[in-house]
Amino acid sequence: MALKASPNDQALLLELQAFDTKLAQLDHRAKSIPEIATLAGFERDTAAVRLRFAEQKGGLEDITIELKRIESDVEVVETRIKRDNDRVQVSSSVKDVAALEQELAALRKRLGDLEEIELAVMERLEEQQVEVGKTTAQLEALAARTAEVEVLKASSLSEVVAERTIAAAGRDAVAAKVPADLLALYEKQRARYGTGASMLRGGVSLASGVKLLENEMQAIRAAAPDDIIMCASSEAILVRTAESGL
After folding, report:
1. Where would you tag: which of 8, 90, 114, 116 has the fewest CB atoms within 10 A of its CB?
2. Quick check: 26 and 166 in contact, CB under 8 A?
3. Is the pTM of this model over 0.85?
4. Cα separation, 140 vs 160, whole angstroms
5. What does each C-alpha distance from 208 to 27, 72, 225 come to in angstroms?
6. What kind of architecture, by CATH, is found in domain 33-175?
7. What mean pLDDT comes out for the span 68-73?
8. Residue 204 exposed, middle or buried by CB count within 10 Å (0-12, 13-18, 19+)
């Protein structure tokens, strides 16, 4: 037996479809608020800056290790210089003093070379620290800006959620009035084709924007008011009203 529904019940489907269209629009709006794209951009920027920060920190650690090694070498040479100086002061052997003086000369040259290297490494360390500081500031600025936009996003979403709550409540109220079998058909068509009900206005199915052929209009005119008619172009339930042009 073909499904039947009173014109008033069929008309309810247009209200239901209006709510479903509104809900779909709100869902799309929630996914496309500008803050989402902005935050995605910040996320990409932050990832890139964090990568640079990690590389800079690694470089900073390498330079620090290098500086500590040179400082250790300097300390060793300074200790040897002090030891040889002390030995020169107490030695009575001209031969030993000459050998110590020769070694001291070599040690002092080595110390001078190490101190030059140490100075250069310290300069590199300072430069690297400056770069790390700049990158840290960038990360902090991005974090602050992200937090600001997150607040704006939450505000925008809260507006959408509020509207959606009202629309969902309206939809539930209308759905409760629709007979179960008619509602099931509507939900089936909407899930499958995107639209559950379409208004026929002036011979045009609004769901598809397609004008019905004359033979289709004649078939609709011949149908009983409680017959369920499906739109051939949109597969939605075609709802007749006083504006249908019948």
Report:
1. 90
2. no
3. no
4. 30
5. 22, 82, 22
6. Orthogonal Bundle (1.10)
7. 96
8. middle
